[in-house]
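Lay summary. Proteins are chains of building blocks that fold into shapes, and those shapes determine what they do. In this project we predict the shape from the chain. Here is one chain we studied, written as its sequence of building blocks.
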Amino acid sequence: ELARLHELGLPNTIEADRLERRLQLEARLCQDAGDVEGELAALEQEAEGHRAAQRFGDAADAAMRLARALGSSGRTDEAIATYDRCLELWSELGEPRREAQARSNRANLILRKGDRRAAVEEYRAGLELLAAIDEARVDRTQVGYNLALALKELGEHEAALNVLGDAIPVAREIHNPGLLCRIYNARGAIQD
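And here is the predicted shape, written in a compact code that computers can read:
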């Protein structure tokens, strides 16, 4: 329906925005009802409509929601492929922070599949994107935490401890006790 509105020359109108919200609500209601297929269909329709309407930032956001839903439903390979589309869009849009978020989410799925080395590479690529963004300290800390867990699974305990050690001051500075607790727990598990 978003694509139809675009064909009519209405890609950025109130009607398109209402349709977007309706599809998001439909996806949420389907999710709450346990209707995975309905949720995925609504999210795919939203993403496709934005692509057709050339609303590429909205398309990337919708694809991120779709990828998360695919991953949650156990469709890991489809979720990874959808994150690949997100990476392309965020890169083209010049959004390194969002690209790093997609990389981290993709790495989580790769790690779930058991490819620890590929997950580590993906987390590191995300960290490289975030390195130059000062206001992304929280993101860097979270991705670093995920990287440390993957390094631990590879048996690279010293590297994991170093990454976690770098994360502690930031977690303290941003007053995130939950993240700080997870970091200390991970350090303890590695040191045992």
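What the prediction tells us: Residues 171 and 178 are 9 Å apart (CA to CA).
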